[in-house]
Write a structure and sequence with these properties.
alpha/beta; 2-enoyl-CoA Hydratase, Chain A, domain 1; Lyase 2-enoyl-coa Hydratase, Chain  A, domain 2; 10 strands; globular
């Protein structure tokens, strides 16, 4: 695995991944996405890791896909490449993913951000799907996740005009979770990741699954899934510990079992 385009470290129960292609504003290419999916799958299977924090740089979260990878490809070549299979692997990650976003989150970068569960953005961040400017359209979920997040009217505006949203607009529209001062964008996201990591690991995975189901299932089906996940948690040691700790007025010591 390349040590250049992704930098990693473990901080307690938080796995930190930094996209690191500064010369191209962290543009996403096939090797990077493959390595990212592999890293996340490894952390998803590591009992010591409770939360994944995905970050770019101060200047750019990811300014899009690497156009050089695709500029001369044909439709058939793109289909055979099946590059979106890697994105499906990231979608399947069960542990919470916190995004620390600063600067540009555009095109594939915005789509990758929307694969994350909680998005903490710097007040200088810019969001958009400008693929229309180069003769194509979003292909990694941009038209679907963006519409579900912000609604048809704003999604059409962003996708068809190629304009960028400010952090304030993105927060107001429901695209991101929090906006923080530019100088604290990473620290605030890391603090949030550590806070989430104190919760019960089994409950975190179940809650993430249930919330994601809300955009893909009918309400009645989603409610059935939610209730089943809720009931299942009563077979876990974390549920016993969490409720006992609450009654005893102490901090719970979750084990992920």
């Amino acid at each position: 695995m390349s040590e250049q385009h992704l930098l990693t470290e473990i901080d307690g129960h938080v796995a930190i991944i930094r996209i690191n292609r500064p010369k191209v504003l962290n543009a996403l290419n096939l090797p990077l996405m493959e390595d990212l999916a592999t890293l996340m799958e490894g952390y998803d299977n590591d009992d010591n890791i409770h939360v994944i924090l995905l970050s770019g740089s101060k200047r750019a979260w990811a300014a899009g896909a690497d156009i050089g990878d695709m500029a001369t490809a044909t439709s058939e070549e793109m289909r055979k490449r099946n590059q979106f299979a890697t994105w499906e692997r990231i979608k399947a990650i069960q542990k919470p993913i916190v995004a620390a976003v600063s600067g540009f989150a555009l095109g594939g970068g915005c789509e990758l951000m929307m694969h994350c569960d909680i998005i903490v953005a710097s007040e200088n961040a810019k969001f958009g799907q400008p693929e229309i400017n180069i003769g194509v359209m979003p292909g990694a979920g941009g038209t679907q996740r963006l519409t579900r997040a912000v609604g048809k009217a704003l999604a059409m505006d962003v996708v068809l005009s190629g304009r960028f949203l400010s952090a304030k607009e993105a927060l107001s529209a429901g695209l991101i979770s929090r906006v923080v001062p530019e100088e604290f964008w990473f620290e605030e996201a890391l603090a949030l990741a550590h806070h989430v990591a104190t919760k019960g690991p089994v409950a975190l995975r179940a809650a993430k699954t249930s919330v994601l189901n809300a955009s893909e299932q009918h309400l009645s089906e989603g409610l059935r899934t939610e209730r089943q996940l809720f009931y299942d948690l009563f077979d876990t040691e974390d549920q016993v510990e969490g409720m006992t700790a609450f009654l005893e007025k102490r901090r719970p010591q979750f084990t992920g079992k």
